[in-house]
Amino acid sequence: MFNKILITGANGFLGHHIIPQLRQAFPGAYLAAVGRQDYDLLEQGTVARMFQTIRPDCVVHLAAMCGGIHDNRQRPADYFYQNLMMNTAVFQESFRCGVRKFLTLIGGCAYPDGTASLLREDQIWAGYPTLTSAGYSMAKKMMLVQSWAYRQQHGFNSVVLIPGNVYGEWDNFAPARAHVIPSLLRKYLDAKDQKQAEITAFGTGRPTRDFVYAGDVAATIPWFLAHYSSSDPINISSGMGTSIRELAETIKEVTGFPGRIVWDTAQPDGQMEKVYDVSRLQALGLSCSTTLKAGLQKTAAWYIQKRQEGILTS
């Protein structure tokens, strides 16, 4: 179906999950997996050179600057500029190069702040996202505009998917940039190793999130490349809500930490409720079925192994 698939951000979190799925689904295609060390996607000329060199007929664009609430609050301009520049350049050069299919992912934080009901795809433009990550969110949200505009004017075939709160092996466990699951996993395991009596978590624990295992998200990507041709976004998640407090208790169980958790309520909660309506996904015959506990067990086992191997030290 495709001769050459370009994957940007191939060395990142989702890249490690998606590439094996692409290799299995498209055995005849050459996978051009590129990372930051190969091409600087902030430079339009470098992006153009990448496309001239590789000449892909399919692009899976995963490259992004991403991180947790703390880092987003500290550097909103960096998150906005870098994501906007990378996305715009890669999309434009995909069109200019004659790519037949373009697929990318944006964060669910692009949804409006304060949306009380399940997050439906038709709500994406109903308001402004939470300020704690607005720089990142708005830059990524522009992919929806670019997808629509290029389809309207040029008939360019692009797909934008909206995963839930993704977690799993190869996630970012660095304290300053980790999202809630890798952050808590690391805190619990460090505290257990150091025989500490407690750990500290940010916020009140009341917010609700829709956590989805990265392997489940990755497994849907080949289907969308082969069968979906629309700029209408699709939520890719479990559709199940879990409070941060429930999450913390589950991670405590998975890691075997015997101590207690202290909630630092001076820190922000972020958006209070974020659970995804997955009816569109299910109507396509797709789902994300890995339970939270099973996914956390896989993630914790991987992190422990990599730390023992000395691969994860920061």
In short:
The protein has ten helices and 13 strands. It has 314 residues and is an alpha/beta fold.
Explain this structure to me?
The model has no long low-confidence stretch (mean pLDDT 94). Helix 5 links the parallel strand 4 and strand 5 (158-163). This protein has helices at 13-25, 44-54, 69-74, 76-96, 134-154, 180-193, 214-227, 244-255, 279-283, 292-308, and strands spanning 4-8, 30-33, 58-61, 101-105, 158-163, 165-167, 198-202, 208-209, 211-213, 234-236, 242-243, 260-264, 273-274. It has a domain at 4-167 and 211-236: Rossmann fold (3-Layer(aba) Sandwich). The radius of gyration is 19 Å and the shape is globular. Strands 2-1-3-4-5-10 form a six-stranded parallel beta sheet, with helices on both faces. It has a three-stranded mixed beta sheet with strand order 11-8-13. The protein contains ten helices and 13 strands. Helix 2 runs parallel beside helix 4, helix 4 (76-96) runs parallel beside helix 5 (134-154) and helix 8 (244-255) packs across helix 10. With 314 residues, it is an alpha/beta fold.
Low-confidence stretches: none
Mean pLDDT, all residues: 94
What about the largest sheet? 6 strands, parallel
Which class of the domain at 4-167 and 211-236 in CATH terms?
Alpha Beta
Strand proportion: 15-25%
Q: What is the CATH topology descriptor of the domain at 4-167 and 211-236?
A: Rossmann fold
Shape: globular
Instruction: State the end-to-end CA separation.
Output: 41 Å
Write down the secondary-structure element order. Answer: EHEHEHHEHEEHEEEHEEHEEHH
Q: Helix content range of the residues, please? A: 40-55%
CATH superfamily of the domain at 4-167 and 211-236: NAD(P)-binding Rossmann-like Domain
Order of the strands making up the biggest sheet: 2-1-3-4-5-10
CATH architecture of the domain at 4-167 and 211-236: 3-Layer(aba) Sandwich
Q: Which structural class do the helices and strands define?
A: alpha/beta
Rg (C-alpha, Å): 19 Å
Q: How many β strands by DSSP?
A: 13
Give the number of helices. Answer: 10
